[in-house]
Amino acid sequence: MKKAEPASKLSVMLAGHLHPPVGGISAYFAALLSSSLPQQVELHFVQTTSPQRPFHQAGKFTFPNLLTALTDCYQFTQAVFSVRPQIVHIATAFGWSFIKHSFCVLIAKAAGCRVLLHPHCSFAAMYSNHSSIWKFIFRFLIRFPDAVLILSSEWMQLREICPACKTYLLHNAIDLRPYLPLANDRITQPHTSSPTQILFLGHIGKAKGSFVLVETARILKKKGEVFFIHLVGSELTKGEIVYLQKVIEENQMEEVIQIHPPAFEEQKFEFFRQADVFVYPSFHEGIPMAVIEAMACGLPVVATRVGGLPDLIQEDVNGFLVPPGRPDALADKIALLIRDVPLRQKMQRESYRLAQNQFEIEQHVEKLVRIYRTLLQTNQQ
Q1: pLDDT under 50 in the chain at which residues?
Q2: Does CATH place domain 177-358 in 3.40.50.2000?
């Protein structure tokens, strides 16, 4: 009797980008490529964003971006028709990125592939905050992928505006292993810093709430709190860091707030190691990888109630959520964590626990492969 032939591996192509430029999509794909996913499926990767393009140009409707998009689509077409994978997993964002990747969706379907579109931004940034013309374009184009991989509960609204769209909810995740020593040290050997070290890590700019943090620092200083805020990252829009530094100096906040360039690897871990509280006052977000990293390090998080952040932060458990653009509310919660060390230590443990239970990359990969297989089987029926 012949032995049954082993099932062939599922053929999957990831379409997105690796850094540079640094961002959520590049961090997500880097995590996937270093996980067990390449062993579980026959994995291919195609770059759909030029590494030469500055991050602050992302998503904008400009002539250089149009030329770059045409090149990206041509390279994508070559890759898809050469490999003809069963599943094409396409990452996208708002604005021009969505238009470009919608063309990639159509190209992949023309090659006979099943397409999973994966937006890496908030639903508000993609749809709600736009004109009726853009909303019409979005509703038209979002029908073409075979399914949409949504990264937060906020994206459940897609089911209301496009009931025919098949959606799967799957949060972002990271490899937790590099962060475990930091979390273990923080939890098993608790310490209190003076001043309390408050960390923001990500893109710096108005949309990320960086200017709100300056006003927050002014309020905290007026309250007599002892603290220091570190803003670590590159600018979201050209010129914003220069202007932010000017605002810091005009408000005489240099002694309590400092801007640092982007940090990677050991330098980034050192910022996490020294921090007591992580803050993320953004005006719109998907599922920011930096917040997951902070949780993996065992840091309590004070963030805004926007996008996917409520999926990460459980109120009064591992942090606090405040309305966007409210430095007074942000200052109140930070002040509470500065003063109440036992509360801060409890939230440290809870952040670490939630990161382990919900945002570990291998758990994510297991769910993702199931989604791939379900999508393929559904479309074969």
Answers
A1: 1-6, 56
A2: yes
